[in-house]
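Page 47, continued from p. 46.
Same chain as before, 154 aa.
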Amino acid sequence: MNKNAIALPSLKGNTKLPVILNHQELKELFAAPMLLKQRVVLRLIYSAGLRGQEVINLKISDIDFERRTIHIRQSKYKKDRVVPLAESMTVGLKKYLKAENPHIRLFNGKEPDGRYSVRGLSWVMRENLKKTSITKDVNLHSLRHAYATHWSRV
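Result:
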């Protein structure tokens, strides 16, 4: 070891596996919201494996119904990516767009720039979980973990 080197303690990583909702629990969660917007946003997060920050930054123009893709712009590490848009989501999204008529952002919210906030999305998740029989300790990001787990088995 170099005599000028500084010995730093190693960081302990979190070794707990994420809690995953099963298909029946997801069905129950997606049926809980009374508002179409809340149903669509929760289902979209799960069906495309999106992060909260990614979904609030989505613009209507990022959805390509013909190619069935979603363009995620400047996400984690400032990278763009394209993810598949599930066929089952196209109907719900089109219904939502017709009913809500958002202008630029896919999901309008109360932020100064018109966006939904991640905090607002987390509230939607928490409030709708209360309407279900789900007792697992899950949060908004758990939908992304569920997506990764369920789709890795296909």
